[in-house]
């Protein structure tokens, strides 16, 4: 069979029939004591001072020189290591498509973007050619003993390249990676504190899939868990709840920024209920709800002071390659405009 005629099979999408029951109550929001306990008992990433320096330079540059608003976009899933010298870990279902795509539209609408992403997940602009069902080399051809871009892809690649170069040349995109849930929480807290000087001109677009459970550092084995250590061939793992730090982000870590969280569900009957519950619990500005099965086609904006707003793409728009984020981000920016105006009153 010719490679061109092969069908593309996607194995990462979970089966709808096996989705877990999400009707159970949500975890309580983290309190100051939860924050203190967590950060007192878990070591920060060793590279955090280097990230702090990059952040300070990035935020200072745009505050003093360009005047651009800043969007913090979190993207991808967090891992939960089972050993300190990690061989095995629990992962989250997320390739980072929504975050990477949204970051591009923020950049195209004049924002500077801090992209807090799972290492090796999709990145703005390169996402068009990485994690693809086609090999990157499929976009190349040989001519006169030299390799070059296949002419049938060149126009599209040129457009992506120009946008990427614009973001690079204007120093508008800062990439910060994480892998574990601990790295994510420490880095999110640091970024939030660095963005306090931005006030309402910052927007937090929290699209990352953050683990609900983890193994506390004090209970984590130092080395690889040996198969001989299991009981009757079974391995039992006791996980603790990751504190729901969104409340601390709203109340303490940030200062006046517009904060947007996401709610992914599999049951349409629970989606709006869960989104409204999150707003009441954390007191932030917007929840973007979506169903796993239709997340690329429709989302709903849920806020405390407006009617629920659905954004939907038609089948024809999807077929033609339109991304729903192209409609989502302008709608978010409109709400951010209103948030900034309200902060000035």
From TrEMBL:
GO terms for biological process: coenzyme A biosynthetic process. SUPFAM superfamilies: CoaB-like. This is CAB2. Residues 196-306 form the DNA/pantothenate metabolism flavoprotein C-terminal domain. GO terms for molecular function: phosphopantothenate--cysteine ligase activity. Pfam families: DFP (PF04127). InterPro entries: CoaB-like_sf, DNA/pantothenate-metab_flavo_C. Belongs to the PPC synthetase family.
């Amino acid at each position: 069979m010719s490679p061109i005629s092969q069908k593309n099979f996607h194995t990462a999408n979970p089966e709808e029939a096996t989705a877990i029951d999400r009707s159970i109550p949500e975890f309580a929001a983290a309190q100051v004591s939860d924050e203190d306990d967590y950060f007192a008992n878990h070591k920060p990433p060793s590279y955090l001072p280097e990230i702090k320096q990059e952040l300070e330079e990035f935020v200072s540059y745009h505050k003093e020189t360009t005047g651009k608003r800043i969007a913090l976009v979190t993207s991808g899933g967090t891992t939960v290591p089972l050993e300190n010298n990690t061989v095995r870990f629990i992962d989250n279902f997320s390739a980072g498509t929504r975050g990477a795509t949204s970051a591009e539209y923020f950049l195209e609408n004049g924002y500077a973007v801090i992209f807090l992403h799972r290492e090796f997940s999709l990145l703005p602009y390169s996402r068009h050619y990485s994690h693809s069902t086609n090999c990157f080399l499929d976009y190349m051809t040989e001519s006169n003993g030299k390799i070059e871009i296949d002419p049938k892809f060149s126009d599209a690649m040129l457009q992506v390249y120009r946008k990427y170069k614009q973001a690079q040349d204007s120093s508008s995109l800062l990439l910060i990676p994480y892998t574990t849930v601990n790295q994510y929480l420490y880095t999110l807290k640091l970024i939030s504190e660095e963005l306090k000087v931005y006030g309402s001109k910052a927007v937090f677009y929290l699209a990352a899939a953050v683990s609900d459970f983890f193994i506390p550092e004090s209970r984590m084995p130092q080395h690889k868990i040996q198969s001989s250590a299991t009981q009757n061939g079974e391995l039992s793992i006791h996980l603790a709840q990751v504190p729901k730090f969104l409340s601390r982000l709203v109340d303490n870590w940030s200062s006046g920024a517009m904060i947007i969280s996401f709610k992914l569900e599999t049951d349409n009957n629970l989606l709006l209920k869960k989104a409204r519950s999150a707003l009441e619990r954390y007191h932030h500005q917007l929840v973007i709800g979506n169903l796993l099965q239709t997340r690329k086609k429709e989302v709903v904006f849920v806020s405390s002071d407006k009617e629920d707003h659905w954004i939907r793409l038609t089948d024809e728009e999807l077929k033609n390659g339109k991304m729903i984020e192209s409609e989502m981000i302008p709608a978010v920016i409109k709400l951010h405009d209103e948030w900034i105006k309200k902060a000035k009153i």
